[in-house]
């Protein structure tokens, strides 16, 4: 069977909602929240690019002293002779206030990632902001998956409200990832991956789990990074949804025509 029957046979596996999974695994405790972004250093990690430092209100005055009068018949000094001169100072524009009703701690981070100032994050900008614990960039397919999931207006980009939803989603998955990363290595081994799938409600053969694990071990390190762990769980969830749509009697077996099979495969792309 592809999934373990629940009390509600139409309910998705608990891993579909990471907050619910974290509460179940943690004895009813909600997942720990993502800490607010802190002031980073250049070229540093998980969604924390450099931020604008703001204004410097200390300015040099540059006063000139008046020279002593001369007794020679020289032309009179210019009108502003001896008066202090202030150099022209170019200031950056003020940072706009965050939209009302949103998390203000994420707004500076969003503005720093939004390199072109468009108010929308492209796939390239979002990928530059998301890195794993070992500072490797997110897999491009994972980034595209995140955009498809949270791009509610179907613009192909991520606005600030959509970014807040995406950030919270990744925070919940990070909490689960840390639970199953038993050795604290920053990646998921085969045994840890097998334990995670079992905890999420799947009953799969070791041979299939091994095949799934190798499919997402894209870096060939016999381990799955955070971004690929999320990608694999979401993909498995979607395949489970497809299966359940055809498994009317919930016996773990379905019958598909060839075209139905191809249609479902194409929809997953």
Automatic annotation (TrEMBL):
Record keywords, A-Z: Calcium, Cytoplasm, Metal-binding, Repeat
Task: Give an example GO molecular function.
Answer: calcium-dependent protein binding
Q: Where in the cell is it found?
A: Cytoplasm
Assigned GO CC terms: cytoplasm
Does the UniProt entry include the keyword Secreted?
Answer: no
Residue segments, region Disordered: 1-105
Compositional bias annotation for Low complexity: 40-50
EF-hand domain boundaries: 109-136, 168-203, 234-269
Where is composition skewed (Pro residues) in this entry? 30-39, 90-101
What's a Pfam family this protein contains?
EF-hand_5
State the protein's name: EF-hand
Give the classification, highest ranks: Eukaryota, Fungi, Dikarya, Ascomycota, Pezizomycotina
